Amino acid sequence: MRKKETFYRGLTYISGALVFFLVGFLFLYIFFKGYKVINLNFLLDVPQGMVLGQEGGIAPAIIGSFLSTFIACGVAGFFGIFTSIYLVFYEKNQKKIKIIQSIIKCIGGIPSIVFGLFGYTLFTIYFGFGKSIISGGLTLGVMIFPVVEIRIEKSLREIDENILKASYSMGVSKFYTIYKIGIPYCLKEIMASILLGYNYAIGATAPIMFCMAVINSPIAFDIKKPAMSLSYHLYTLMTQGISMKMAYGTAFILLALIVVVTIIFQILLRKRDE
User: Fold this and answer.
1) C-alpha–C-alpha distance, residues 130 and 138, integer Å
2) DSSP one-letter string for 186-244
3) 151-174 tens-digit pLDDT
4) pLDDT for 39-95, tens place per residue?
5) For an engineered disulfide with 75, which of 141, 158, 264, 271 has Cβ 3.0 to 4.6 Å away?
6) What's the distance, CA 265 to chain centroid?
């Protein structure tokens, strides 16, 4: 028994060390390949050069990625929270709950390129948003919705029933109980779910190829216009063979944005707990 415990503990240490090594190696490799192009001009300028992207910066791509991901997180967070509340607190028919959960899981298994076609058909053409940041953001929101909803629903189901029953027994309405007890109790998990969706959305390329991303755009904040994105710019630099050092620089900034936003979220949540 003791040998088994030692064996499994060793496996966990090896797995943890391997993941840490691979992530660290990935960051360092990309950094050393692209650090020469990373400077203030790279962050604040637009793409330039004989072949667009060989020189200049990625400012429009940073703005486009942030705006589309912000819209996606807002949409997925809103529908994720309210869908979870409905399934956990209001719907009592178990068959209906299972069907809705199965549909959400199926959406989570759809290939990202299909989301691109869906977003192009629904938002770009049918709703008339055209190729724009809002079309891309809504498409990304649909894509990350299952990730956000499943985690939020799980956290709501883990609320101690005694707390809820105590609130109901005092005559407090279900809505007020959810608003004052349920949501604050799960706020950390809800924010972590939306953060996971952010990390998933900001690196997605296929869903925005047809409904948002362009090769070049000015520095602007108009969500009704098409825009560059970091992931699509990286894809273009790599597949067209424009500049590998610019591609590695773009990849490092994309990873850095994920890490920085994650750290800021963690700090904010820790301060809230204190």
Assistant:
1) 12
2) HHHHHHHHHHHHHHHHHT--HHHHTTTB-S---S---TTS-B--HHHHHHHHHHTTS-H
3) 999 999 999 889 888 888 888 888
4) 999 999 999 988 888 888 999 999 999 999 999 999 999 999 999 999 999 999 999
5) 141
6) 13
User: Cα–Cα distance between 198 and 73 in angstroms, integer?
Assistant: 6
Angle at which helices 94-108 and 133-157 pack, to 10 degrees? 140
- The span from the CA of 29 to the CA of 158, in Å, is 41
DSSP annotation of 45: S
DSSP 8-state class, residue 51: T
**Assigned token pair, 171:** 């005559």
Note whether 72 and 267 are within 8 A (CB): no
User: Beta partners for 100?
Assistant: none
Amino acid sitting at position 29: Y
In the chain, the amino acid numbered 107 is: I
Query: Token match 């301060």: residue?
Result: 271
Segment (H or E) for 23: helix 2-34
